[in-house]
Specification:
This protein is α/β, with parallel strands linked by helices and 314 residues long. It has twelve helices and eight strands. It starts with a helix and ends with a helix.
């Protein structure tokens, strides 16, 4: 699908959001000039002899090999400039597996966010090992290091500080954390760059955001080292397929944009998990329809410049 065709399709979407103030020329310039870095994709191979620890075989959409060749085809179809691979495995050696999978194309696969056991004796050596590769940009925290004693475990804070001292980043999946806990981490390690995944983990219902969630977002965003990934929006609806009307997502986008502003929002798809809800282009179009009328500067930052700054890309 060409950008001109997509632009024509987006006109009624923009009108539905009350975003028709952008002229044809302005909109076309915004879309054709965009350089897109997708900061949230997963790669794995269910055919490996040892299998994978995610996704489970019961997942009929995701349980199949998802490899660079598959994302390469998507890049060509959708005009994606570059990507950050986010590791979804808890196995330490899978950090190296991902780095090896994408070493053939460093201009497209510009970074890897890994998975390491925070708060363990092995963490420091493992971080030294993997971060020796400049493509290794940080780690993702999915489960609570130290379990329920997370905030009482000195080893956890030691490792988070080590991550920050190396200039590396922390992605946080909020499935096992609250936004207020993110705020606490940001305050305690203020030089750690933190990226909250999937529009802060809110369940998107199409209605106005709850006041308590809005307040938590504002508290997190008040910390200058916290950024928000505009990603995984189909997943956050909990629906298969996900709603395709941009107005359904606007209340969530409003809160995130108001809190984080144009300088601390970063685009990601959560591919291939996004396929549970719909096509890659459908999710991208919804995000673009909301942010494009805010101007070319905002879209450049969302889809490209903020990712370069946050992850320290060349």
């Amino acid at each position: 699908m060409t950008w001109h065709t997509r632009y024509l399709r987006l006109l009624p979407l923009a009108a539905a959001l009350g975003l028709a103030g952008c002229t044809t020329t302005q909109w076309e310039q915004d879309t054709t000039a965009i350089r897109k870095i997708d900061t949230h994709i997963h790669l794995y191979d269910t055919g490996r002899p040892a299998g994978v620890d995610w996704p489970p075989p019961s997942d009929k959409v995701l349980f199949r090999p998802v490899l660079p060749e598959h994302f390469d085809a998507l890049c060509k179809a959708e005009g994606i400039t570059a990507a950050i691979v986010v590791e979804a495995s808890s196995r330490v050696e899978d950090n190296q597996w991902v780095l090896d999978q994408v070493k053939h194309d460093p201009l497209r696969y510009v970074g890897v966010v890994g998975s390491l056991p925070i708060g363990t004796d092995a963490f420091a050596d493992l971080l030294d090992r993997f971060s020796a590769d400049p493509r290794y940009k940080g780690i993702r925290m999915r489960s609570r290091p130290g379990g329920d004693t997370f905030f009482e475990d000195a080893a956890v804070w030691r490792d988070l500080k080590l991550l920050a001292d190396k200039g590396l980043c922390l992605d946080i999946l909020l499935a096992n954390f609250s936004l207020d806990e993110v705020t606490l981490v940001a305050k305690r390690v203020p030089h750690l760059k933190i990226l909250v995944n999937h529009v802060t983990g809110l369940s998107i219902t199409g209605g106005a955001a709850e006041a308590s969630w809005r307040s938590s977002v504002k508290r997190a965003a008040a910390q200058p080292n916290v950024f928000c990934k505009v990603s995984g929006i189909f997943q956050r609806t909990g629906k298969m397929p996900a709603p395709k009307g941009p107005a359904y997502y606007a209340p969530t986008f409003d809160v995130v944009y108001e809190a984080f502003g144009e300088d601390r929002i970063i685009y990601g798809s959560n591919w291939p998990v996004s396929m549970r809800g719909g096509k890659y282009a459908e999710q991208f179009d919804i995000i673009h329809a909301f942010f494009a009328p805010k101007g070319a500067r905002v879209t450049r930052k969302l889809f490209h410049e903020n990712a370069v700054r946050f992850y320290g890309l060349d």
